[in-house]
Structure formats: C-alpha cells, structure tokens
Request: fold
Amino acid sequence: MANFKGHALPGSFFLLFGLWWSVKYPLRQCWRRGQPRGRSRLPQFFNRIDLVEGALKIFFAFVGIMAEQFVPDGPHGHLYNQEAKSWVKLMNWQHSTMYLFYGISGIADVLSMTSLPIPPGLDRLALSLALFVEGFLFYFHVHNRPPLDVHVHSLLLVAVFGGSISTLLEVFLRDNPVLELLRSSLAILQGTWFYQIGFVLFPLNGVQWDLTLHDNMMFVTMCFCWHYAVTLLIIGLNYSLVWFIIRRCSGRQINDMEIGLRKQPPSDRSSQKALLQDSEEE
Amino acid sequence: MANFKGHALPGSFFLLFGLWWSVKYPLRQCWRRGQPRGRSRLPQFFNRIDLVEGALKIFFAFVGIMAEQFVPDGPHGHLYNQEAKSWVKLMNWQHSTMYLFYGISGIADVLSMTSLPIPPGLDRLALSLALFVEGFLFYFHVHNRPPLDVHVHSLLLVAVFGGSISTLLEVFLRDNPVLELLRSSLAILQGTWFYQIGFVLFPLNGVQWDLTLHDNMMFVTMCFCWHYAVTLLIIGLNYSLVWFIIRRCSGRQINDMEIGLRKQPPSDRSSQKALLQDSEEE
Amino acid sequence: MANFKGHALPGSFFLLFGLWWSVKYPLRQCWRRGQPRGRSRLPQFFNRIDLVEGALKIFFAFVGIMAEQFVPDGPHGHLYNQEAKSWVKLMNWQHSTMYLFYGISGIADVLSMTSLPIPPGLDRLALSLALFVEGFLFYFHVHNRPPLDVHVHSLLLVAVFGGSISTLLEVFLRDNPVLELLRSSLAILQGTWFYQIGFVLFPLNGVQWDLTLHDNMMFVTMCFCWHYAVTLLIIGLNYSLVWFIIRRCSGRQINDMEIGLRKQPPSDRSSQKALLQDSEEE
Amino acid sequence: MANFKGHALPGSFFLLFGLWWSVKYPLRQCWRRGQPRGRSRLPQFFNRIDLVEGALKIFFAFVGIMAEQFVPDGPHGHLYNQEAKSWVKLMNWQHSTMYLFYGISGIADVLSMTSLPIPPGLDRLALSLALFVEGFLFYFHVHNRPPLDVHVHSLLLVAVFGGSISTLLEVFLRDNPVLELLRSSLAILQGTWFYQIGFVLFPLNGVQWDLTLHDNMMFVTMCFCWHYAVTLLIIGLNYSLVWFIIRRCSGRQINDMEIGLRKQPPSDRSSQKALLQDSEEE
Reply:
C-alpha cells in the first residue's frame, strides 16, 4: 500500500491511541491524587476501559492484517509463487506481521485484565515487543530507496524504538507518570509522522519533492522536532484539561487533601513530591 | 561442521533448554503463588532440578567440544600447523570456545546450588557471558560470505544478544517472572532459528536458495518474526498447561488464597498484582 | 551564524548554567547534610532560585530564537522561498528549534515549582529531551563539511548525549549527588567546547587550521579530554568552596552532628556514607 | 612507545590491580559474611588498604606520565613545534592524558577515604570515567593501521568499555559482589590482553605476524575469549583461596552463623541468598 492512505491508516491508529493515552493516564493519576492516602483503589471503570482498549487493539490489528492481505493488489494469502519462483507482495506480508504483533499485545492486555495469573508487566512487555518488531522490520524495509525516503523512515524509527525502550522500562517501573506521558507522546508523534511521510512521498497537491536534495533532508529532520514540540503541547493541554475537569467535579476533596499536606511538618519540596508519587505508585 | 547437522545440534540444545525453562519457571511461579503469603519455601525438589540442569549444561558443552574437535574433518586438538604456517580449522575451534563458556555457565549453576558462599546472581552472569561470547564470536564469524548467509546469522545475533542483556538484567532483578519468560522465549527462538539457518543454507530438498536475492532477505527477516510469534504461542501454551495442572493438583488451596485476597480491602488491580509479585519475589 | 560569536553565544549559556549548577547542587547537598536527620526542609530560598533558573532558561531561549531569526543574514521568519523553490537559511531554523526545546525545558522547570500537580521528574525529562534534540539536530548538521569540522562537532555530541542520558537517569534517581555533579560538569564541558570549536574553526589570530590534517584531529580529541579534566577541577574547587563557606557559617551545627554520627555504633564506612546519602536523598 | 615494553607497562598496572581486586573484594565479602547479622563494621584495616590503593594509583599515573613524556624519544613537555608547524609526539601526549585520568581516579579514591563530605559513589564514577577516557582515546587512536593492529586494539576496547559500564553501575549498586568480581575480571583481562597485543605486534621470537591475514584475525578474536576464560579461572581460584583461608582463621564463627541461618524458618534458597546479600550490602 505505497500510497497516502497506506501511511494514513497506521498513522490514524497511533494518533488515536496516543491521544487516548494522553487523556487516560492523567485521569488515572489525578484520580489517585484525589484519594486519601493509603492504597486507594481505582474504580472498576478503569479496568473496563483497559479491557476495551485491548479488545480494540486486537480488532484494529485484525482489520490491518485483512486490509494488507485482501486489498486488490494484495497477496490474498499467497506467500510464494511456485511458477514465477518468487515471493508474493512481501511488503504487504511485512505489514501484516507488524499488525500481528500489535494483536498479540492486545491479547496480552486483555489477559492481564482477567483474573488469570498473568505475571504483572507482561502487557507492557508485549507492547514493547510490538514496537520493537515494527522498528525491526522497518529497519530492513527501506533498502534501495531514494535518500529522502530512507531518511523519513529512519526518523520514524527514532519514535518507534524510543517508544519500545520507554515501554520496556514500564515493565519494571509500572505506573510511573513520567514514562506514561512519554509513551503517550511518542505514540502521537508516530501517528503524526506517518501522516507527514504520506505528505512528503505522495504530496496531495501533486508537486513531487526532490528526494535527493540535502536541504529537504535537513528540513525534514527539523520538522520531526516540530512535530514533537506540537505533541508536547497537545499532551500538556490534555493534562491540564483533565486536571481542571477532575478538580471541578471532585473539587473540595482535593483542596482538603492539599491543605492536609500543607499542614504536615513542612519538608523539602522534592520529598513532598515523592510523597505524592508514592501515593500514585501505591 | 558447515552442514545441516552442524546447525541442528546447537539448535536442539537451545530448543531443549528453552522448552524446559518455559515449563520450569511457570511451575516455580505457580508454586509460590499457591503458598500462603510470607517467605514460602520452594521444595528441595526445585534445587535438585537446578543442579541437574547445571550438570546437563556441563555435559552438553563437553559433548559439543568433543564433537567439534574429533569429527573426521575436525582439528583433533591441533591449533597451528607449523609446516603449512597456518591455523587448523579455526571454525571448529571457535565453536569449541562457545561451548566452553556454556560449560563455565553450567559450572556456575552447579556451584550456586551447593552450600559454598557464591555471590547470588553469579549463575545468571555466567549465562549472560556465555551468550555474549557466542554473539561476539558469531559477529566476527561471517565475513566474506554471501549476503543471505550473513543476514540469517545477523538475525541470530538479535536473539543471542537479546538473551544476553535479558539474562544480565536477571543478575539484578532475580526471579522476575517477566524476565524469566523472556529468557525462555529467546532460547526457544534461538533453537528454532538455528534449524531455520540449516534449512536455508543446506536445503533438505536440494534446491539451493539464491543467496544474493534481496527478496529472500526480506522474507527471512519476516520469517524471524514469525518464529518469535510461534515461540510466544508455545510459551503461552506451556504456561497455561502448567497453571491448569497445578490448579488441578493443589486445587482447593489456591482457591482459598484467591478468596482470601479478594476479601482484603479491595485496591487497585495493579497493586493487587504487585502484592502477588512481592510474594513471588519474596 | 557560522562565526566565532555564533559559537560563543551558546557556549556562554551552557558555561553559565554549568557553573551555576556546580555551586547550587553542592549548596543544597551541604545544607541538607548540615540539618539534623529526618526529613529536613530546604529553605523556600532554594525553590525561588529554581523558579528564577527556569525563567532565565525561557528568557535565554527566547533571546536565542530571536537572535537566530533576526540577525541581518537571518531568515526573518521566512521558511520557504516560493520563487527560488528553496528553503531559507535552514541552519538558523535548526538553531531556533534547539533553543525552542530549551525554552520548553524552562517552562517545565517553572511549572514544577508551582503548586500544580506536575509529575515529579518532568523537569528533568524536559531537560534531557532538550539535550537530545540538540544532539539529534547536530548529528544531521555536519554532512559535507571538512573532516576536522565534523570531528569537533562529533566530540560535542559526546558531551550533549552524555548530558542527555545522565539527566534522563535523574528522572528516576532524583537528587542523586553524583548525577547532579555529572550533569554540571557536562554542561561546563559543553560550554568550553563551544568556545574551542569557535577557536578552531574561526581562529582569532587569523591563522587557519588545516581542516584535513589527521594530527589536528588527534590533538583535538585529546584536547576534549583536557577540557573535561579542567572542568572536573572547577567542579572540585566550587564544591570545596561551598563546603568551606557553609561550614564556616553554620559551623558548630555540623560538628555536633558529625560527633553524633561518630558516637553511633561504629559500622562499615560505606554504610555510614549510605546513611549520609539517605539523609540527602530524603 | 610503540614497542613491547610500551604495552607491557600498562598491562602490568592493570594486571596488578585486577589481581589485587580479585583478592580484596572476596576478602571483604567473606569478612562481612562471617560477622553476625546487622550493620557489621569492616575493620579500619580495609579503609587503610583503600587509601593505599588510591595513593598507588596516583603514584603509578605520575610514573606513567613522566615515562611517556621523558623517555628519550618523548615530547619532553613540548606540545607544538612552531618551526615545523606540527604537533610533537601526539601519541605520547595521548597516553599521558590516559594516565592523567587514572590519577584523577586515584585522587577521588583518596578523598573518599577521608572524612570530607564526598558524595558516595564519586570514586567509582571517577574510575568509570578514567576507563571511558582510555577507550575514547584508543578509539580514535588506530586509524590508518594494518587490519590486525586495528583488530587487537578494538578487542581491547571491549574490555575497556565493559569495565567502564560495569564500574558506572557500581555508582548506583555499590558493594554488589557480582559487579566487583566483574570489574576485577575485566581489569585482569585488560592486563593480559595488553601483553597479548605486545606479543602479536612485536613478537619476541622475531617472526612477524601477517597483519592482513583474515585467519589471524579470527584466531585473535578467539584468543581474546580464552584470555577471559583463564581470567575467570584466576578469579575463581583467588575467591576459593580467600574463602578457605578466612574459614580456617575464623573457623568456628562462620560455622555457628551458618547453623544459625539453617535454624531459621526454612525458606526458598534464593531468598536465603538474598538475606546473605543484604548482610553483605548493608
């Protein structure tokens, strides 16, 4: 699917999940902060959401695999053409493989939410693995292409492997608010960058980019940073919005707790933060 | 031993150990989970198993070294030919060196099970080292070979170094269930991939692969991911099977404990998992 | 701004911040050590200082962006020249982007000092990110330049990425005195090295360096190490100075505490250190 | 000093320190294990030893710098020859720089042993830095040399950077017995490998090696692994020896404690080990 749509489809998936995470995690963090200290429980509501998220991942992965296989110029499930002695549409098969691992990550998510004895952190490992496989396949994906084409895909790899490492850290540092925001931001970045790749390689206005010009590569590198700056802005806005709404709804409760905290023997600011973090990490 | 058997032999070793680990670790985890909280002890049984495992490693390493040295076209212990002024069968010597470090790992395993004051984590460090040495030697192993040959061995390195890093983490995060499953899966992957290398370079049906065709490389990259997907399936099946059998055997006990847990002041699901993990990690 | 001033400007910023940190962090560490055990509080004074630091970062970033855009030969806000079909002054745009992320880091600093519920560690993540973006853009910045030019900028990357990784660790190991000193030293190193790049590429005495001579590259590599040795000396002097002054001011108090410590059941020296560290880390 | 002695000198330093560490750390570990639980103190003896070690490092670094500068064909403190417009003996200057950072590491060791408020872990950071600088300078040291020359120095870098990373971990995981043994082993490896480089590049029997033959490179890679296998053997022997002697001297005491441990409610073997580790790490 080497066209604009072929990049917009995965881009939309990542954008959707990134935006959703940038709302979900602040919501969870604010909820916990609003609770009195001690092992506060998250409402059942949050578990159901995670379950739906996992199910959606499986569904999207399934849609992605089907789309890659059964588009008109797809391989339709054929891998090797005995007559022509050649592989059939390997590009589509590679994309299917990427979706497959996101499906596995979805299955791990769903299983983690059941009462089965799944080791904690397995869902994050599966997601980290899905991102790694995506980056791994992309890495060997772009040989023999024009320099700018290679470069925009290499930049994508920064977001993909960055997300993979950040998610791997979450296996060991679960519920770390900074890592959760980092993962959300890298998912949004990946989403918007897929769109950008589409715009660069298949321009909507029809004016082709010069795929060998060094200046274009320099611009694209810088543009990647701008995407991330905008992503950080979105994350910040969503965080503020969630915090403002939560504060409105459960208003007085938070104020009380904050006053309570201020009444404690005053201590170093960072230790106060550490306290808050404790109550978040439970 | 540049033939199919030369790849099937180490492949079988890794496959065997990987499959065994994928049964042993779930067994240990389920056993601990089934115990009442507090520092439950593993039955002596598990220590004996680890001892046997270490002894088997030493034995296999010994067999491997002997095989590499004394096959008909092996170096028979000769390293340098003074007359021809050349090294004798360096490939076999390199393989012997790899086996040697697995032997050292086996010795570390056995020593860790005795009552000697071995620093905890040394067995994992020795295994990590053995994997590193394997990867290190393979890395300088494949110069001047056809592209596909280099590529299938490079993919092997992903499994080898991945296993080495994951095992190194276990030095510091001992008994982490996720890392144990990761190590098991990477061992199985290495095993099946050794077989795949054999099939690609020495096809059983006699039809040689084109070792320079780019499409073959793309397929092989993807195939590596499929191997890992199947590996994950095997790990999952073994985990379920072990859990199901343990549940059958010690049935009521687990149920009781789970009800016990559910009666506790209900808390966030992830904290409940953390509890379980605590009891696992002791 | 490919001239001496263009390298002296960022160099001065980094030097200023590095020197300031090399005073601030020893001050905080000594203050805490001087307090009786238990969660001692840092005076409000330190929070105000951090606030001013964040505000200064935003101001400097703003100055930097404006300078890059509106110097006589700058892009004046124009990105693409429709007539010439070419990008306008991409170098200046890249530098503006770097400053932008330092501005974002400043905003994160300021927000962390307010009473808003910012996740702890976000300020360090933002700084780490700003350093990463700087290194990332520099990495693609130096294609098609003479070898020595490439080499001095590559050496800069060691300081930049080193600082980025060290600051990233601080997200998880906040208030670690060793990491704080490491960050200070890498900032000073970056500052002095920017000056050195200026001296090498635009020598003040007008005698151009031979940008292709291998010996020059060897000298420059070694010179980089000397810069760091001097940096360590500065850090050490500042640390001693701060410690000496604090000791003078709050003299008796520290002595008392140290005697108190010595009266404790004597234990291993490293454990005593660990105690001190605890009281630092709170 | 491109001759055999020039490689034997640093090799001897590293070998000496590696062997010494492989005795010192087991000694400390066994001593602690022999003490009753709780924060046992190391005898003043160990601090004095560390002080002497630091002083020796400073002395050796000083000797190294002097030797590099004032050997007959050294630079004698001259850096730039104004007349010839060229740098003077950069190789010797680079080696002096390496020694300088080991001197700084020695100073950090000595300061850490005084009663000054040095942040704990600074001595390990300084050592890690010295190793990093050594590797960093070697990395840019070997351009334009024959392949085998480059290769033996690259293998050295594995030991150097491995040691640097392992020592960096010790900043955060101080007194970890596994990391201490790893550092000792990598120091011995570096020492013996320096000798090996000397033997390969300046053979004592006068028969030059073919510096371009691929087989030689394969042998050397394998030989590096053998060096490490021998290193592990030495480490193991020293550990056993120390343990055996300590057991002899303070015999009964250890036995008592072990019986004490066995009388505790029996728990998982690994948890028992963790206990022991706790008492080691204090």
